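Lab notebook page, bench 4
Experiment: in silico fold of construct C2
Operator: M.H.
Input chain length: 231 residues
Purpose: comparison with the prior construct
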Amino acid sequence: MHIVDCRKGRISIQGQGRSWTLLRPADLESLWAALGEDDFGEDERVPYWTELWPASLALAQWLYEQRAALQGALCMDMGCGLGLTAMIGALLGARVLAFDYEPEALRYARKNMNLNFKDAPRPAQERPSLLWTVMDWRRPAIAKKRARRIWAGDIMYERRFVEPVAAFLDYALASDGTVWIAEPGRNIYKEFHARMLDAGWSVSCVKNTGAPSFTPEKTMVSVQIWELRRI
Protein backbone atom coordinates (compact mmCIF):
# COMPACT_ATOMS: atom_id res chain seq x y z
CA MET A 1 0.00 0.00 0.00
CA HIS A 2 1.18 3.54 -0.57
CA ILE A 3 0.09 7.03 0.44
CA VAL A 4 -1.27 9.08 -2.46
CA ASP A 5 -2.00 12.28 -0.54
CA CYS A 6 -1.62 13.41 3.07
CA ARG A 7 -3.39 16.55 4.26
CA LYS A 8 -4.47 17.98 7.58
CA GLY A 9 -8.02 16.69 7.24
CA ARG A 10 -7.62 13.51 5.20
CA ILE A 11 -5.22 10.84 4.00
CA SER A 12 -5.58 9.02 0.68
CA ILE A 13 -4.08 5.55 0.18
CA GLN A 14 -3.93 3.15 -2.73
CA GLY A 15 -3.74 -0.58 -2.17
CA GLN A 16 -5.35 -3.98 -2.77
CA GLY A 17 -6.75 -2.75 -6.05
CA ARG A 18 -8.70 0.18 -4.65
CA SER A 19 -8.42 3.63 -3.09
CA TRP A 20 -8.96 4.38 0.59
CA THR A 21 -9.78 7.74 2.15
CA LEU A 22 -9.25 8.39 5.86
CA LEU A 23 -10.83 11.48 7.38
CA ARG A 24 -9.24 12.96 10.50
CA PRO A 25 -9.63 16.14 12.57
CA ALA A 26 -6.15 17.45 11.69
CA ASP A 27 -2.55 16.30 11.51
CA LEU A 28 -0.70 15.35 14.69
CA GLU A 29 1.58 18.41 14.63
CA SER A 30 -1.38 20.79 14.65
CA LEU A 31 -3.20 18.91 17.40
CA TRP A 32 -0.05 18.62 19.51
CA ALA A 33 0.29 22.39 19.54
CA ALA A 34 -3.19 22.67 21.07
CA LEU A 35 -2.57 20.20 23.94
CA GLY A 36 -2.64 21.45 27.53
CA GLU A 37 -1.00 20.19 30.73
CA ASP A 38 -4.02 18.03 31.57
CA ASP A 39 -3.38 15.98 28.44
CA PHE A 40 -0.05 14.71 29.80
CA GLY A 41 -1.19 12.94 32.96
CA GLU A 42 -0.96 9.25 33.83
CA ASP A 43 -3.01 8.41 30.72
CA GLU A 44 -1.63 10.71 28.07
CA ARG A 45 -4.19 12.02 25.61
CA VAL A 46 -1.69 12.65 22.82
CA PRO A 47 -3.70 12.05 19.60
CA TYR A 48 -1.29 9.64 17.92
CA TRP A 49 -4.34 8.01 16.33
CA THR A 50 -4.72 10.93 13.90
CA GLU A 51 -1.74 9.74 11.85
CA LEU A 52 -1.39 6.71 9.60
CA TRP A 53 1.85 5.15 10.80
CA PRO A 54 4.09 3.03 8.54
CA ALA A 55 3.39 -0.06 10.65
CA SER A 56 -0.32 0.20 9.80
CA LEU A 57 0.44 0.19 6.07
CA ALA A 58 2.68 -2.86 6.48
CA LEU A 59 0.03 -4.59 8.61
CA ALA A 60 -2.65 -3.85 6.02
CA GLN A 61 -0.56 -5.58 3.34
CA TRP A 62 0.08 -8.54 5.66
CA LEU A 63 -3.65 -8.99 6.31
CA TYR A 64 -4.24 -9.09 2.57
CA GLU A 65 -1.59 -11.80 2.22
CA GLN A 66 -3.23 -13.78 5.04
CA ARG A 67 -6.78 -13.32 3.77
CA ALA A 68 -7.50 -17.06 3.68
CA ALA A 69 -6.88 -17.23 7.45
CA LEU A 70 -9.34 -14.39 8.07
CA GLN A 71 -12.42 -15.87 6.40
CA GLY A 72 -15.21 -15.98 8.97
CA ALA A 73 -12.80 -15.66 11.89
CA LEU A 74 -13.57 -13.51 14.92
CA CYS A 75 -10.73 -10.97 14.93
CA MET A 76 -9.71 -7.98 17.01
CA ASP A 77 -7.90 -4.80 15.98
CA MET A 78 -6.09 -3.31 18.99
CA GLY A 79 -5.76 0.46 18.92
CA CYS A 80 -7.58 0.75 15.62
CA GLY A 81 -7.11 4.53 15.24
CA LEU A 82 -8.55 5.78 11.95
CA GLY A 83 -9.68 2.26 11.12
CA LEU A 84 -7.71 1.22 8.04
CA THR A 85 -6.61 -2.27 9.11
CA ALA A 86 -9.98 -3.01 10.70
CA MET A 87 -11.75 -2.11 7.45
CA ILE A 88 -9.37 -4.18 5.35
CA GLY A 89 -9.73 -7.19 7.65
CA ALA A 90 -13.51 -6.97 7.47
CA LEU A 91 -13.46 -6.53 3.69
CA LEU A 92 -11.35 -9.70 3.46
CA GLY A 93 -14.02 -11.70 5.26
CA ALA A 94 -13.14 -11.44 8.95
CA ARG A 95 -15.64 -10.60 11.69
CA VAL A 96 -13.78 -7.69 13.25
CA LEU A 97 -14.11 -6.07 16.66
CA ALA A 98 -12.03 -2.90 16.45
CA PHE A 99 -11.29 -0.92 19.59
CA ASP A 100 -9.43 2.15 20.71
CA TYR A 101 -9.00 3.97 24.01
CA GLU A 102 -9.97 7.31 22.49
CA PRO A 103 -13.68 7.89 21.74
CA GLU A 104 -12.76 10.51 19.14
CA ALA A 105 -10.73 7.93 17.23
CA LEU A 106 -13.78 5.67 17.02
CA ARG A 107 -15.92 8.55 15.79
CA TYR A 108 -13.58 9.05 12.84
CA ALA A 109 -13.18 5.32 12.27
CA ARG A 110 -16.95 5.01 11.86
CA LYS A 111 -16.95 7.96 9.46
CA ASN A 112 -14.22 6.28 7.45
CA MET A 113 -16.12 2.99 7.31
CA ASN A 114 -19.22 4.74 5.97
CA LEU A 115 -17.15 6.69 3.47
CA ASN A 116 -15.13 3.76 2.14
CA PHE A 117 -17.89 1.15 2.11
CA LYS A 118 -20.71 3.29 0.73
CA ASP A 119 -19.98 2.26 -2.87
CA ALA A 120 -19.05 -1.33 -2.09
CA PRO A 121 -20.48 -3.55 -4.87
CA ARG A 122 -22.49 -5.84 -2.59
CA PRO A 123 -25.97 -5.98 -1.03
CA ALA A 124 -26.42 -4.18 2.27
CA GLN A 125 -26.84 -7.49 4.13
CA GLU A 126 -23.40 -8.56 2.91
CA ARG A 127 -21.55 -5.47 4.09
CA PRO A 128 -18.31 -6.25 5.94
CA SER A 129 -18.78 -7.42 9.53
CA LEU A 130 -17.21 -4.68 11.64
CA LEU A 131 -17.98 -3.43 15.15
CA TRP A 132 -16.29 -0.40 16.69
CA THR A 133 -16.00 0.02 20.46
CA VAL A 134 -14.17 2.12 23.03
CA MET A 135 -12.16 -0.18 25.27
CA ASP A 136 -9.17 -0.02 27.60
CA TRP A 137 -6.95 -3.09 27.18
CA ARG A 138 -6.34 -2.97 30.95
CA ARG A 139 -10.04 -3.73 31.44
CA PRO A 140 -11.23 -6.09 28.69
CA ALA A 141 -14.95 -5.84 28.01
CA ILE A 142 -15.16 -9.00 25.91
CA ALA A 143 -15.59 -12.73 26.39
CA LYS A 144 -12.44 -14.60 27.40
CA LYS A 145 -10.34 -16.43 24.80
CA ARG A 146 -12.69 -15.84 21.86
CA ALA A 147 -10.56 -14.04 19.25
CA ARG A 148 -8.97 -16.27 16.61
CA ARG A 149 -6.81 -13.44 15.26
CA ILE A 150 -5.64 -10.27 17.00
CA TRP A 151 -3.58 -7.63 15.24
CA ALA A 152 -2.02 -4.29 16.09
CA GLY A 153 0.29 -1.76 14.48
CA ASP A 154 3.05 0.06 16.39
CA ILE A 155 1.39 -0.08 19.82
CA MET A 156 4.50 -0.77 21.90
CA TYR A 157 5.88 2.77 22.21
CA GLU A 158 5.72 3.13 26.01
CA ARG A 159 7.11 0.79 28.66
CA ARG A 160 3.89 0.94 30.67
CA PHE A 161 2.11 -0.92 27.85
CA VAL A 162 4.17 -4.11 28.14
CA GLU A 163 2.36 -5.80 31.02
CA PRO A 164 -1.23 -4.80 30.18
CA VAL A 165 -0.86 -5.79 26.51
CA ALA A 166 0.62 -9.15 27.49
CA ALA A 167 -2.23 -9.71 29.93
CA PHE A 168 -4.83 -8.67 27.36
CA LEU A 169 -3.51 -11.08 24.73
CA ASP A 170 -3.51 -13.92 27.23
CA TYR A 171 -7.10 -13.06 28.15
CA ALA A 172 -8.58 -12.46 24.70
CA LEU A 173 -6.79 -14.86 22.32
CA ALA A 174 -8.32 -18.26 21.63
CA SER A 175 -6.20 -21.25 22.62
CA ASP A 176 -5.31 -21.92 18.96
CA GLY A 177 -5.28 -18.24 17.93
CA THR A 178 -2.65 -16.03 16.37
CA VAL A 179 -1.44 -12.48 17.10
CA TRP A 180 0.17 -10.25 14.48
CA ILE A 181 2.03 -7.14 15.57
CA ALA A 182 3.59 -4.72 13.07
CA GLU A 183 6.59 -3.11 14.71
CA PRO A 184 9.04 -0.46 13.39
CA GLY A 185 11.93 -1.50 15.63
CA ARG A 186 11.23 0.38 18.86
CA ASN A 187 13.47 -0.62 21.78
CA ILE A 188 10.49 -1.15 24.09
CA TYR A 189 9.23 -3.92 21.82
CA LYS A 190 12.28 -5.97 22.84
CA GLU A 191 11.02 -5.93 26.42
CA PHE A 192 7.60 -7.04 25.28
CA HIS A 193 9.19 -9.77 23.14
CA ALA A 194 11.12 -11.09 26.14
CA ARG A 195 8.02 -10.87 28.35
CA MET A 196 6.01 -13.05 25.98
CA LEU A 197 8.82 -15.61 25.64
CA ASP A 198 9.07 -15.83 29.44
CA ALA A 199 5.32 -16.45 29.55
CA GLY A 200 5.71 -19.45 27.25
CA TRP A 201 4.62 -17.98 23.93
CA SER A 202 6.31 -18.47 20.58
CA VAL A 203 7.34 -15.19 18.97
CA SER A 204 8.67 -15.14 15.42
CA CYS A 205 9.28 -12.53 12.75
CA VAL A 206 7.28 -13.63 9.71
CA LYS A 207 8.02 -10.67 7.45
CA ASN A 208 10.47 -7.79 7.04
CA THR A 209 9.22 -5.02 4.82
CA GLY A 210 9.34 -1.30 4.19
CA ALA A 211 6.47 1.17 4.38
CA PRO A 212 6.31 4.90 3.66
CA SER A 213 6.05 7.39 6.50
CA PHE A 214 3.27 9.97 6.67
CA THR A 215 5.77 12.82 6.25
CA PRO A 216 5.77 14.84 3.01
CA GLU A 217 9.07 13.18 2.12
CA LYS A 218 7.42 9.73 2.36
CA THR A 219 10.67 8.16 3.54
CA MET A 220 10.63 4.37 3.87
CA VAL A 221 10.54 2.85 7.34
CA SER A 222 11.58 -0.74 8.10
CA VAL A 223 8.73 -2.71 9.67
CA GLN A 224 8.70 -6.25 11.03
CA ILE A 225 5.56 -8.39 11.31
CA TRP A 226 5.72 -10.53 14.45
CA GLU A 227 3.55 -13.59 14.94
CA LEU A 228 2.73 -14.71 18.47
CA ARG A 229 1.16 -18.01 19.53
CA ARG A 230 0.76 -19.99 22.69
CA ILE A 231 3.02 -23.01 22.87
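Observations: The CA atoms of residues 145 and 175 lie 7 Å apart. The chain has a mean pLDDT of 89.
Next step: discuss at group meeting.
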